[in-house]
């Protein structure tokens, strides 16, 4: 059994965000601490707060959230659990999605909405400046450049420290960088379905951008022979090997697995200490894990 006293996100090494924020390379995704369907408050508010506090105890110093998670609930819980924040904690939040009803996600990356969204996140998180603010997704009904120009103006005003992008192509990254420095990309990426963003990961490493993979783990039922074999060799779970593969995939990778369970959180952090071999990495990369 893993000694929980020795668990630390620092075992995965560090990454640099924007040249001035050093984070351990295992973060926490705070989407699922909300209610069912990522809407409303959690059924167990005290449990959600306990998970956030345990993440901080385990040296997790980057937490990913968004105003659309709840909506607003995730940000409010983070502040309730952790304010005043531990030194060095980076809270990365996002804007550009609306949650008018349960099960409904709607774009709004218009300049007016983004300005309102940033002000709302500042208030809920009890911050004077957001360390990393990410456009949650390009909005088909809003000019992408106008969205980025708005975030650039908010950065100039001191409300945002760094800007990142989520759910984008590399073309979006290049268009945004023509306007303002971009320090991170957050796309869906895992050992199970990593191919589509493979080149984006490589480009981020080349250019010094952090890559946050969302949905980074896999279901045990989806694990193929290769990942099961590597998991047995390390006395680990397939979830842990999926995270270890991401850490080995690129030095700019910062996984942000989410959970509402302290044991599952500790399982994720234990993956930071797993060092898969070159041969194991190649075998996992060659063989898709989905049956």
Reconstruct the topology from this structure.
Layout: E1 14-17, E2 21-24, E3 28-29, H1 45-57, E4 62-64, H2 73-82, E5 90-95, E6 97-98, E7 106-107, H3 111-125, E8 130-135, H4 144-156, E9 160-166, H5 170-177, E10 184-188, H6 198-207, E11 210-214, H7 225-234, H8 238-249, H9 262-270, H10 278-286
Parallel strand pairs: 3-4, 4-5, 5-8, 8-9, 9-10, 10-11
Antiparallel strand pairs: 1-2, 6-7
| Physical arrangement of strands within the biggest beta sheet | 3-4-5-8-9-10-11
CATH topology: TIM Barrel
- The whole-number mean of residue pLDDT values reads 94
Total helix count? 10
Please tell me about this protein's structure.
This protein has a single domain (7-286), classed as Alpha-Beta Barrel (TIM Barrel), CATH 3.20.20.100. The protein is globular and about 55 Å long. With 291 residues, the chain is α/β, with parallel strands linked by helices. The chain starts with 13 loop residues before the first strand and ends in a 5-residue tail after the last helix. Helix 3 (111-125) crosses helix 4 and helix 7 crosses helix 8 (238-249). It contains 10 helices and 11 strands. Strands 3-4-5-8-9-10-11 form a 7-stranded parallel sheet, covered by helices on one side. A two-stranded antiparallel sheet has the order 1-2. It has helices at residues 45-57, 73-82, 111-125, 144-156, 170-177, 198-207, 225-234, 238-249, 262-270, 278-286; strands at residues 14-17, 21-24, 28-29, 62-64, 90-95, 97-98, 106-107, 130-135, 160-166, 184-188, 210-214.
């Amino acid at each position: 059994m893993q000694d929980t006293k020795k668990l630390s996100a620092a075992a995965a090494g560090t990454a640099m965000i924007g040249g001035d924020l050093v984070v351990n390379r295992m973060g926490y995704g705070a989407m699922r601490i909300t209610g069912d369907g990522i809407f409303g408050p959690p059924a167990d508010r005290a449990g959600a707060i306990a998970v956030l506090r345990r993440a901080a105890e385990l040296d997790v110093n980057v937490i990913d959230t968004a105003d659309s998670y709840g909506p607003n609930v995730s940000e409010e819980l983070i502040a309730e659990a952790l304010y005043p924040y531990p030194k060095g904690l980076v809270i990365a939040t996002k804007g550009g999605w609306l949650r008018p009803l349960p099960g409904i996600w709607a774009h709004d990356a218009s300049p007016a909405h983004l300005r309102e969204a940033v002000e709302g996140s500042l208030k809920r998180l009890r911050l004077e400046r957001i360390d990393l603010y990410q456009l949650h997704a390009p909005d088909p009904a809003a000019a992408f450049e106008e969205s980025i120009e708005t975030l650039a103006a908010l950065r100039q005003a001191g409300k945002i420290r760094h800007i990142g992008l989520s759910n984008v192509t590399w073309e979006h990254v290049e268009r945004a960088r023509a306007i303002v420095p971009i320090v991170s990309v957050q796309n869906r990426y895992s050992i199970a379905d990593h191919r589509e963003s493979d080149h984006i990961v490589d480009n981020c490493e080349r250019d010094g951008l952090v890559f946050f993979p969302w949905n980074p783990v896999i279901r045990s039922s989806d694990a193929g022979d290769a990942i099961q074999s590597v998991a047995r060799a390390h006395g680990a779970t397939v979830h842990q090997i999926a995270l270890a593969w991401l850490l080995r995939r690129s030095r700019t990778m910062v996984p942000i697995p989410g959970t509402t369970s302290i044991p599952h959180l500790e399982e994720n952090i234990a993956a930071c200490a797993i060092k898969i071999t070159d041969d194991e990495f190649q075998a996992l990369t060659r063989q898709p894990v989905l049956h």
